[in-house]
Design goal:
The protein has helices at residues 4-11, 15-22, 32-44, 69-73, 76-91, 123-130, 155-168, 193-204, 220-234, 247-259, 293-308; strands at 60-65, 95-99, 115-118, 136-139, 149-153, 174-179, 181-182, 189-190, 213-216, 241-244, 269-274, 287-291, 316-319, 321-324. The protein is α/β, with parallel strands linked by helices. The chain folds into 3 domains: 4-44, no CATH class; 60-153 and 294-319, Rossmann fold, CATH 3.40.50.2300; 155-291, Response regulator (Rossmann fold, 3-Layer(aba) Sandwich). β7 and β8 form a beta hairpin. α1 (4-11) packs across α3 (32-44). The longest helix is centred in the N-terminal third of the chain and has 16 residues, at 76-91.
Length: 330
């Protein structure tokens, strides 16, 4: 790696001048041309400022997944978050040790500088992790935002964007098909922000019909079963649009509608959430809310690096979403 001395020799200035320029010393009086030359040479030599002696070495972190490996295979949302974490750690030469739900008790034997916890953890589980280290970043949940950092998607705003889009398209009978989850230790049910936001926003618009809401699991099979139930119960009065809690549910809904010879989107619009890789390949291609899952993972690593470096005040970071319209809605 290039040193300050290498840059000073090529720029024709002193080592002290290079150091002060790269550290943006406001008391330094040199021309803009000299600064530009130093910066350009530093870039060409791929110079990187040495870390402050006060900044701790970050060589190993733990990544805790609330799923088992098998469960993750069925949910590309969490897999994408994990890949974002791994890629960012590789870029920063950070060793990451992975633990899934079925083996994270082994973490207690590791010496790690911090933890990134993917998924949703109960109060008891958070306490267990905190006994290992207080330097924890939660991704996709925020169990205690006054103590721990967290990275979450703004699902409430995403829900409102979907409903605004459907209402603008003239839909008044809009249904919701979602799922419920419980903590892995089964201590409590987890409130879903999409379901909560749907009820609140549709209520505010005067369009809420709770008979159009169906809740099961976040899976293709559950989506198909619940849409079949909606078809049987409402017949010709079936809502003209459904918002699905995730893409897996939405794919199941599409399957049920096509099996019932109900045309999509001519008769019923379907919009999901997550924009998993298969969404663009199903028939009809699925309209969905893109969640920037890899960015969530990358941001978690950056946030943990900050925390280990000494930041005391916890952060809760919302990652925005984007509505992606394909063939299942118009």
């Amino acid at each position: 790696m290039a040193t300050i001395k290498d840059i000073a020799e090529k720029a024709g200035v002193s080592i002290a001048t290079v150091s002060r320029v790269l550290n943006d010393d406001p008391t330094l009086s040199v021309s803009d041309e000299t600064k530009r030359r130093i910066f350009e040479i530093a870039e060409k030599l791929s110079y990187k400022k040495r870390l402050s002696q006060k900044k701790p070495s970050l060589s190993k972190i733990a990544m805790i997944h609330w799923y088992t490996e098998q469960e993750e295979l069925n949910d590309l949302y969490y897999m994408s978050i994990r890949l974002g974490i791994e890629n960012r750690c590789q870029m920063n030469d950070i060793q990451v040790v992975k633990y899934f739900r079925n083996n994270f008790a082994e973490l207690k034997r590791e010496e790690v500088h911090g933890i990134i916890a993917i998924g949703k953890f109960s109060t008891q589980e958070v306490g267990e992790l905190a006994r290992i280290t207080k330097k924890i970043v939660f991704v996709d949940s925020s169990p205690d935002e006054e103590t721990f950092d967290s990275i979450v998607a703004d699902f409430e705003r995403a829900t409102e964007k979907v409903l605004d889009y459907l209402i603008e398209k003239g839909h008044e009978k809009i249904g919701y098909i979602g799922g419920h989850e419980v903590f892995k230790d089964e201590t409590a049910e987890i409130e879903d922000p999409r379901e909560r936001a749907f009820k609140a926003y549709m209520g505010k618009k005067g369009l809420l019909h709770e008979s159009y809401m169906y809740i099961g699991a976040f899976s293709v099979d559950a989506g198909q079963m619940l849409m079949n139930q909606a078809i049987q119960e409402h017949g010709e009065n079936l809502p003209t649009a459904f918002f699905a809690g995730n893409d897996s549910i939405a794919v199941g809904c599409l399957r049920a509608l096509l099996n019932a010879n109900i045309s999509v989107p001519e008769r019923v619009n379907i919009i999901g959430v997550n924009d998993i890789s298969v969404s663009k390949y199903v028939y009809p291609s699925l309209s969905t809310v893109k969640v920037y899952t890899e960015l969530m993972g990358e941001t978690a690593v950056d946030t943990l690096i900050e925390r280990i470096a000494g930041r005391q005040v916890p952060k809760k970071i919302f990652i925005s979403t984007k509505l992606v319209c394909r063939e299942s809605s118009f």
